[in-house]
Amino acid sequence: MTKGTTVDSPKKAPKTFFVQNYGCQMNVYDGERMADQFAAQGMTSSSKDDADLIVLNTCHIREKAAEKVYSEIGRVGKKRKQANGAQPMIAVAGCVAQAEGAEISRRSPSVDIVVGPQAYHKLPEMIAGVAAGKRGLDLDLPGLDKFDVLPKKRKSGPTAFLTVQEGCDKFCTYCVVPYTRGAEISRSWSALIDEAKALVDGGAKEITLLGQNVNAWTGEDDSGNAVGLEDLIRALDRISGLARIRYVTSHPNDMTDGLIAAHGDVEKLMPYLHLPVQAGSDRILKAMNRSHSADSYRRIIDAVRKIRPDIAISGDFIVGFPGESDGDFEDTMRLVEYINYASAYSFKYSPRPGTPAATMADQVAPQIMDERLQRLQQLLGQQQYEFNRSVIGQSCDILLERKGKYEGQLIGKSPWLQSTHVDMPGLKIGDMVRVQINEAGYSSVTGDVLMQAAA
Ligand code: SAH
Ligand code: SF4
Ligand code: F3S
């Protein structure tokens, strides 16, 4: 049920919209689906400066996220006033909406709608409510309803996201996701195959399967057999017109033998695995409730590399979790040295309201966190650079995704997810080109086009 309170000055029904995404790829996917939904209703997309409806699709993973949203709301209102424009209808969606709820409307009277990440299919109804003078709040976590009511046809760029799984049951002690996204639920086999085909028909050549724990996806295939993510990947491998499959983010505990095996023989599955470990000390992993050890993580990576030696390994790290000693941090550094990452994301621990770690004793001093993060990032950056250098001289396919800085330059992704710059007249976004990598930097590589690949 959409709840509402009456406001004095109703805003007009919007004809144009702008969706601003923060946070993870799942929010990007949700933002695209919201846009699909608005377009199906006859609204057109516009810029933040003149849209009638602005959706802030927020993230709550680390601190200051909520503060950023409040200042953005203030900025939008002020800019419109300066331009003598009408105030836009403002909807706060996503994980801050779920976590802060009605507090947002109380603090920011210009917010008309607060909608949680599992309820955005109710937006049209809520928008109509606002135009009739009723502010809207909907923070239900109704599972998968949102996917059922969204438009089925998909227009896509060369790369597309497809959310296969929502929510998280892992309850790592530092993390808000289980509270903001709800319990782990998998979308159905048939819905996913249909949507993947619709994306390919709409122009996608690469699909990245998404989930907070994407490899926890389970389902039943058309014959009623119990299936896992590897089976879904194998089914997508058979869709003609689709050239590449990726998936993100995985949890070490759901890294099954079947999924590892898929990296060895599914041709379209790209040689890239994002497998967050967070820390290298078993004591800290236990306090984080990660339920894997540094050693079990190492064994998974060893097994994947045995099957796919060139695979690019990526990870996430948190430094300065409560109680992390110098020795614990050295364990993280040792693990990083062992794994040798191709890329990684690393963060200072950020206490999140309502999570168990926020009230743990022995919070680490900010200065120590800074020093540790700097050392870790230096090592990870060096490894990334070495990985980028290791592909110099190799030939590989690049799927061109966007324009570069210079006239004629295009940027795409290598199989190992490296940003790759190419420069040759006549190429366009969406082309798959055969390239020889000839130069490497810290965050990208450059290639010479050999020929247009068949895809
Ligand atoms: N489900 C994924 C990732 C979820 S959030 C997983 O389990 O790996 C993305 C990343 O944000 C996490 O991997 C973690 O490194 C980081 N993160 C989550 N909560 C955090 C917090 N409270 N402080 C700092 N980093 C955090
Ligand atoms: Fe958060 Fe842990 Fe779930 Fe990842 S597995 S989303 S870090 S609770
Ligand atoms: Fe952020 Fe929510 Fe994603 S907290 S990382 S937007 S699941």
TrEMBL record:
Catalytically driven reaction(s): N(6)-dimethylallyladenosine(37) in tRNA + (sulfur carrier)-SH + AH2 + 2 S-adenosyl-L-methionine = 2-methylsulfanyl-N(6)-dimethylallyladenosine(37) in tRNA + (sulfur carrier)-H + 5'-deoxyadenosine + L-methionine + A + S-adenosyl-L-homocysteine + 2 H(+)
UniProt key word Membrane: no
Binding site residues for [4Fe-4S] cluster 2: C168, C172, C175
Main location: cytoplasm
Enzyme class: transferase
Superkingdom as given in the UniProt entry: Bacteria
Function field: Catalyzes the methylthiolation of N6-(dimethylallyl)adenosine (i(6)A), leading to the formation of 2-methylthio-N6-(dimethylallyl)adenosine (ms(2)i(6)A) at position 37 in tRNAs that read codons beginning with uridine.
The family this protein is said to belong to: Belongs to the methylthiotransferase family. MiaB subfamily.
NCBIfam families for the chain: miaB-methiolase, MiaB/RimO family radical SAM methylthiotransferase
Protein name stated in the entry: tRNA-2-methylthio-N(6)-dimethylallyladenosine synthase
